[in-house]
Amino acid sequence: MMVYLMRHGIAEPFGCKPDPQRSLTAVGRARVQAQFEACQPLLAVQRIVHSPYLRAQQTAQIGAQVLTGTPLIVDGRLTPDDDPATALAVLEQYADLPTLYVTHNPLIGRLIGLLCEGSSRVVEPMETGMLAAIECNWPAAGMGTLAWKRAVPR
Can you give the pTM of this predicted structure? Predict the structure, then answer.
């Protein structure tokens, strides 16, 4: 199975609003759109699970449009400072169908480390809008292999 992970697009600067309410910028929206369009052939997903933070929700909504109506699910365990082990439980919960998870740093980098290296202390760098695919039999610590990672087209 493939587990798809995406960091949200470029958002408004820290401090302009409470962190959960920070929105994607116009450039962030455009780059997320370009990322989904470029990676559409690689994303065989049947749903998108995302953080409740506005920028992740907006990123997921763009994905649902490009991927023709893919259903969206909000999960409060995918916020920036959540425990990667808790996020891993989210991946296990939704392992029945190919799923894209839209979340944040530092969680996403630590989650990839947990999946691929067995430790959340190993952090995979993830730029805004970046997509990664982890190949695994089941989403569990140390059971994955990073299949590919794509930066946002510029």
Answer: 0.97
Cα–Cα distance measured from residue 154 to residue 136, given in angstroms and rounded to the nearest whole number: 30
CA-to-CA distance for 39 and 34, rounded, in angstroms?
8
Residue bearing tokens 């609003």:
17
154 confidence band (pLDDT: 50, 70, 90): confident
> Quick check: 91 and 140 in contact, CB under 8 A?
no
Phi and psi, residue 48, nearest 5°: -125, 125
> Which two structure tokens, joined as six digits, stand for 45?
């997903």
What are the pLDDT digits (tens) for 37-90? Answer: 999 999 999 999 999 999 999 999 999 999 998 999 999 999 999 999 999 999
Q: What is the DSSP code string of 46-108?
A: SEEEE-SSHHHHHHHHHHHHHTTS--EEE-TT-STTS-HHHHHHHHHHTTTS-EEEEE-TTHH
* Dist CA 61 CA 82 (whole Å): 22
Cβ–Cβ under 8 Å, residues 16 and 140 = no
Tell me how crowded residue 85 is: count the other CB atoms within 10 A of its CB: 12
Q: Which of 109, 145, 144, 115 is nearest to 127 (CA)?
A: 109
